[in-house]
## 1
Amino acid sequence: MKLALPALTFLAVPLAAAAVEAGEPAPARQRELIHLVRQDCGSCHGMKLTGGLGSPLTAEALRDKPLEGLEATIHGGRPGTAMPPWKTILSESEIQWIVHKLMTGFPTE
Ligand code: HEC
């Protein structure tokens, strides 16, 4: 998992820089991200993110997992599994925000 980190920095979308400085996505974008996670991620990870084809993404399930590994999985997908890469859709800071939200209990809306 650690090996993907330099690549992440290198691939970071320039636009994301502003969001990283601001700390988190703008409120309207946060709503889009919540919708995306519930719908698109939910199609594999379960509508309640409790697992399906994909593993559970609840705070409980992710508690002991390193942030970097989770972010790298979302960024690049997990080759050999159904987990697709999201780097063309989600910026680095958006992925960090999603992982943070997953680890603290993902909002329902
Ligand atoms: C097409 C199905 C599919 C979609 C869509 C999908 N995932 Fe996954 N995801 C998986 C599978 C399958 C795994 C487990 C891979 C494995 O067996 O190691 C996984 C693993 C993960 C993991 C690692 C979990 C862990 O415990 O290590 C994270 C985090 C994750 N997905 C987040 C997401 C997010 C966020 C989205 C939406 C942006 C998403 N996934 C969309 C199938 C999917």
## 2
Amino acid sequence: MKPQLLHSFLFQFFLLCTAASENEAQSTGETIVFTTLGRSDYAWDIFTLPSSDPPNPSNEHRITDGVSVNFNGHLPSSPSSSILSLLRNRSLIQAPSPQAPTGLQLIYVTERNGMTNIYYDALYCGVLRSSRSRSALETPVRVQAPLLGLEESKHRVSMKDRPSLSGENLIYVSTHEDPGEPRTSWAAVYSTHLGTGLTRRLTPYGVADFSPAVSPSGVWTAVASYGEDGWDGEVEELSTNIYIFLTRDATNRVKVVEHGGWPCWVDDSTLYFHRKSDDQWMSVYKATFPKDKPILANSVKIQRVTPPGLHAFTPATSPGNHMFIALATRRPNSSFRHIELFDTVKNEFIELTRHVSPTTHHFNPFISPDSAQVGYHKCRGENNGGQTSQLLLENVKSPVANLSLFRVDGSFPTFSTAGDRIAYVNFPGIYVVNRNGSNLRRVSPLNAFAIAWDTVRKGILYTSAGPEFSSESTEVDVVAIDVDNVDGSNHRRLTVNGKNNAFPSPSPDGKRIVFRSGRTGHKNLYIMDAIEGEMGGLQKLTDGPWTDTMCNWSPDGDWIAFASDRHNPGSGCFELYLIHPNGTGLRRLISSGKSGRTNHPSFSPDGKTITFTTDYGGISAEPISNPHQFGPYGEIYTIKLDGSDLKRLTHNSYEDGTPSWAPVYISQVDVVWSKRTQCAFEDCHWLNKMSGGRGTMVEPLGSVSLNLLASALLWKRNCGGFTRASYVLKGYKQVIVEMDNLEALSIINGSHSDNISITLVAHILNIRNRNWNIQFKHVARTGNCVSDMLSKLAPIADFSINHWNPLQHLLQNDMMIGY
Ligand SMILES: *[C@@H]1O[C@H](CO)[C@@H](O)[C@H](O)[C@H]1NC(C)=O
Ligand SMILES: *[C@@H]1O[C@H](CO)[C@@H](O)[C@H](O)[C@H]1NC(C)=O
Ligand SMILES: *[C@@H]1O[C@H](CO)[C@@H](O)[C@H](O)[C@H]1NC(C)=O
Ligand SMILES: *[C@@H]1O[C@H](CO)[C@@H](O)[C@H](O)[C@H]1NC(C)=O
Ligand SMILES: *[C@@H]1O[C@H](CO)[C@@H](O)[C@H](O)[C@H]1NC(C)=O
Ligand SMILES: *[C@@H]1O[C@H](CO)[C@@H](O)[C@H](O)[C@H]1NC(C)=O
Ligand SMILES: *[C@@H]1O[C@H](CO)[C@@H](O)[C@H](O)[C@H]1NC(C)=O
């Protein structure tokens, strides 16, 4: 050890001790952090547009609070007075005056205070006197009331979804009951009487149901369900069937449609649904029940409603309306999901939201009972009247009282050993931020994944990085980065052969590093010297023709936990294993059932428990109802080292991944930062596939980084810039970047160095290295550049095209909980 290092080692050791004793004092529990792809950008509100007037920004109305994450609305037909009279918490009902006319009432899902719940909002058209100006302002007064308390879910944490009101009963999905089987969804439909709270499960035990819809008479409920066959691991379109049953008592359950999802009723014998057609377009279909025969799958008449040539899905109807339905579309000439009407008499589409917010995704339409309004949710954006604080640490309601659970706005979030800083990766770039959100810094421009802090030397991070601008994406090496010395000499490469060396995890004494390497042609585990790297000594820990990966060294030094498919090599099925660092004691910690995906183990500070991400809880909603998630099944779990006490911590329909334990307890409060623009999420990648002319599949090509890049340039140059990528015909390998900012354009076009915007340049160099034709086009625009920038921030932040990344397969292999 060099004298300098030794000195710094002693100094850090001293710091560590003081930090630890400080934290000890406040410690009353434990903390797990994890990430959810895109979720921090889901600043959603519910909006409406009239169904008959030409849509324009002035007749679009935001009808939720502009603060929470609000989605999947339903406009009930019962009068608001009767709903309000049913609410059990009387203190919530402070209508402005009993006579005040309600403008609108809405039932919807909301994520707030770390939980999902179903809320009821009534908007009154009240008149408020502003104290500052004398003018009277027409301001809607909002009553917001939760429709469910904790008791309806037996005081368990759960996801709630797809509410609708039928008489005095709320029908909805909840995930609070554990089916007790690996890879089985917890989603089931429940009915709660609003007046008494009496709750009844409508889904049979042993079955999962999604997307419930109640018929106009209230007699029938339709659901999408696998029935008893269960989930087979799909993450795109689910191969569900549609079942109906009596809403009253869940009897008379019968399958009415083979292959379909997202049912909605026009009357008690007509429902619409979506399915992927044989020509690969998602399309809306109509099912008509026989009037004179028993309703069975083979007696139901099924007709395709929407034509090939575009994806049409998540249909919505209103009672008795045989004239039109609403649906979401992805058209070949748009990268955005829009809400349209479909005239079922003339067989014509009527576009709605593209006239209002063309470059924003819109989800899951619904129609008011009188057919006059169409609702949907979308990102509120800065100019849609909402204010959202972007959260660095989002407190997520934990089922364990003294375990804090935080969603971090960054991938592979990892706390420093002293618990004061968080590192995360951003594809590309590694960032470090204080845990209170201050002092955010990029400490490396590398395209890297998986990070771990050194346990002894303060400020040293280990990561797995591809060589900068490498065209060979499998070249990955373990690198140590000194985050407190960011002058270019702070990177040390510890592995040298570039054979997919990744997932470094240091031993608690800071002397060695376990990592996985593909150097033999298979990914197995190795241990090397933490300072000298593999040149200072290399031990092969596991060996075999399978994949061992995502290793984590226990705090007591005795165990290494990892994910492996060794029980079924190449199957893509990963389970968790434990091994001693000396190669003895190998055992399986958890099996995840047939083709399960259980990944990313991380030890608790006391070494007795492991947190990980898994598809153990199946899928919780139809993936098409959300933006893109690689693995919509991912949930965070814990298990004791002896295999006992398996616990599910998170409940949602997103991919929760890469959990890690913090060394200190952090109180369960959001940490806000005002760092990034919102709404930078992508639509389901599989909907980007469109059938083009001459039968060729066309994929819009581009990358999320073009988007990030545009925003980065905006910030940097304080000026407008707009990028879009063109569609790319398979085989033609061409991408067109359009910008309205000549200055930015010439920088990108001319630059072969990395000092302007590493993101853009890296990706463009990558495209060039692959002999793609890349064209830069200036798109003329007029107007003031600063105000243009402001007006364009929201749509650009929404910019969403197919995720193309040179490390794409690594992402899928390693970061995401897929394989
Ligand atoms: C969490 O609470 C349980 C019971 O209240 C207690 O046994 C346990 O020690 C606590 N854990 C920590 C880390 O404080
Ligand atoms: C009723 O609602 C109020 C306001 O949100 C809340 O403070 C109170 O705890 C609630 N009471 C019950 C019994 O849930
Ligand atoms: C997409 O195509 C439709 C129908 O062909 C057309 O009406 C619409 O204007 C096009 N949209 C864009 C954004 O070009
Ligand atoms: C955040 O934490 C840093 C480091 O602990 C501290 O210096 C800073 O004052 C804190 N900032 C705020 C706003 O609390
Ligand atoms: C291997 O290591 C474990 C714990 O780290 C220890 O209990 C065991 O005795 C060791 N076995 C050998 C053969 O050294
Ligand atoms: C981009 O660069 C190429 C060559 O470096 C040049 O010929 C072309 O005019 C540039 N395009 C724009 C739009 O600046
Ligand atoms: C890139 O960095 C070099 C050296 O630091 C500097 O001279 C040059 O101006 C930078 N280029 C731009 C466009 O900022």
